Amino acid sequence: MDLTRLEQIDETCWRIAPTDGMRVPGILCADAGLIRAMDDKVREQICNVARLPGIVDAAYAMPDAHWGYGFPIGGVAAFDPVQGGIVSAGGVGFDISCGVRTLLTGLDIEHLESVKRPLADQLARTIPAGLGSQGRVRLTHRELDAMLRGGARWAVEQGYGEPADLERIEENGCMAGADPDQVSKQAKERQLQEMGTLGSGNHYLEVQHVAEVYDPTIAACYGLAKGDVVVSIHCGSRGLGHQIGTDYLKAMLVAAPRHGLTLPDRELACAPLESSLGRAYLGAIRAGINCALANREILTHLAREAFERVLPAAHLDLLYDVSHNTCKEEEHMLDGRPRRLFVHRKGATRAFGPGHPALPESLRPGGQPVIIGGSMGTSSHILAGLGSARAFASACHGAGRSMSRHQATRRWQGREVVDDLAARGILIRSPSLRGVAEEAPGAYKDVDAVVDAAEAAGLAKKVARMVPLICIKG
Amino acid sequence: MAAWRHFQHMADIGVHGEGASLAEAFEQTALALSAVITDPALIRPETRVEVECRGSDPEMLLVDWLNAWVYAMATRGMLFARFSVTLDGGGLHGIGWGERLEPARHQPTVEIKGATYTELKVWQAPDGIWHAQCVVDV
Fold it and tell me: Which residues are B68's β-sheet partners?
């Protein structure tokens, strides 16, 4: 992206002045190096988001922003329902409530060395991963609706996961206002065999160790210390969420003229919050959010089973679970008064600061854990939210690709990637070598630069960096 | 002259089909969709599945057509090797031939979440060849 077309506010804040129908400015939260490397499409997409009705404050791009569908990935925008604000299916995306959770194990890296291989094999047998894998949990339509209303709380009631997990999940594990009746028959059909599955692409379950601690006080609040072994799970709402995205993108596109909306890009398909379609979509995505929360809770249960067999000394306690593709109703201060807004985070993580009432007591001193996933060979990070007024208390979500899937498969063979990582002490288990090649660590941007920028921009504070030991890849 | 190809998109992948008719371009685009997951030559065309699509214009119809196969692959646990399209005023009738997915044999790369409106185009070139394309989210 051309820096000369941006107004620099400070080291990590760049402004696009509102022109050509933009209702608010665009704000990019990143350093000059990251912005220079961003596609010009990010600028175009941020400007388009700024043209949507009812948008307030600014259309934001996080340090890891890249070209997405309608919204950039790494885009944040909030809409006011009383000012004709909209909700956008393109602003949430296909993988509704895709997110990451990190579990503590109570062990350090020495405990793991002797059982690393059997643990990797056991996890690979226990966690359904990759295309065509099926979950152990089979639901009837009635059970599926109960899951869509209850989220992780439903999963715990069914014996998957532990009650103590719930307060460590956004919305205490259950998104209110879910309406399974607004989820199509097709979306439900896609989910019947996919509960408790990891999926494919960049989704994974990793056993990691804490390689570096940046803030010992917050790390202690989170229960993290250097050398600790943790488990991270990255996945979303599976087929159900994908189909909700497909269904509502089309419905919003078809209804746009009826709602008097002129869309700058078809992928920005949206509906007024105060319309029947807007309300239906909110009911559906809240159900999709619950599906993702239940899915990660079931996968956590499976991970606990695998550890119990190989490493019974481990106790997997949930540190926190974040979702990074959502639209949520939140209260934020704007122009000195509290406002009820619908905040879209597309490839962005909520980052509430210390003391926020949505956090459990035990985490309030540190602020909300912001979990940033890596890719096989690369680091993951845990940051602490600062509740920044900029970008409605949001931060980045990951590194983002630097190379297309096609380029990656031309550059690397799956076997070579697995062997190279094994030589570095990282065990990969995946049903597809071709899938591994597409997800080669070299095909991703430097996540360390992204979190440095997030910290410099005052969005979140660096707490710890983790490196992978075992990766179960879809 | 019927052919398919992929085109680059940073996070995802573009599918492109071309042929002597709009129907043939649609068939080839679906083949490009299968090829995102595995080499179509590895898929045996053993079982026949039919789909019906409606769209207000050829571009909306293309998204519906591809999403019909995303849905069929997900719910039937199948992959498809061959497609046939019959267009009739505003809609289409399609047939796909494929088999159940076997991860060890097909080595599937990635699951397709849905067809998108990004880079979505359907057109007839001056040489008469029809083209159809969009990016799919993986």
Answer: none
ipTM: 0.93
pLDDT digits (tens, 9 = 90+) for B6-34: 998 777 899 999 999 999 999 999 999 99
Q: Is A234 among the catalytic positions?
A: no
Beta strands in B21-90 (DSSP E): 47-54, 78-88
Residue A131 to residue B108, Cβ atoms within 8 A? yes
For the whole model, what pTM was predicted?
0.96
- Alpha-carbon Rg for chain B, nearest whole angstrom, is 14
Contact A131, B103 (CB under 8 A): yes
CB atoms B103 and A130 under 8 Å = yes
Which ranges of A388-461 would DSSP assign to H, the alpha helix?
A: 405-411, 414-423, 433-438, 447-456
* Per-residue pLDDT tens digits for A57-94: 999 999 999 988 899 999 999 999 999 999 999 999 99
Residues of A in contact with B67 (CB under 8 A): 246
Query: In this complex, which of B11, B64, B67 lies closest to A73 when CB atoms are compared?
Result: B11
- CB-count burial class (<10 Å; 0-12, 13-18, 19+) for B128: exposed
Interatomic CA distance for residues A30 and A75, integer angstroms: 12
The span from the CA of A464 to the CA of A230, in Å, is 12
For chain B, domain boundaries: 3-137
CB contact under 8 A, B11 and A254: no
Residues of A in contact with B70 (CB under 8 A): 242, 246
Query: CB burial class (10 A; 0-12, 13-18, 19+) of residue A110?
Result: exposed
Which residue from A334, A360, A330 is spatially nearest to A343, judged by alpha carbons? A330
What CATH code is assigned to A3-88+97-473? 3.90.1860.10
Facing residues of A473 across strands?
A204
Which residues of chain B lie closer than 8 angstroms to A242, CB-CB?
70, 74, 113-114, 137
Q: Give the pairing type, strands A55-66 and A26-28.
A: parallel
CB pairs under 8 A between A and B: 119
Q: CATH says B3-137 is which class? A: alpha beta
pLDDT digits (tens, 9 = 90+) for A20-48: 999 999 999 999 999 999 989 999 999 99
Residue A449: partners with Cβ closer than 8 Å, 6 or more residues away: A31, A33, A34, A63
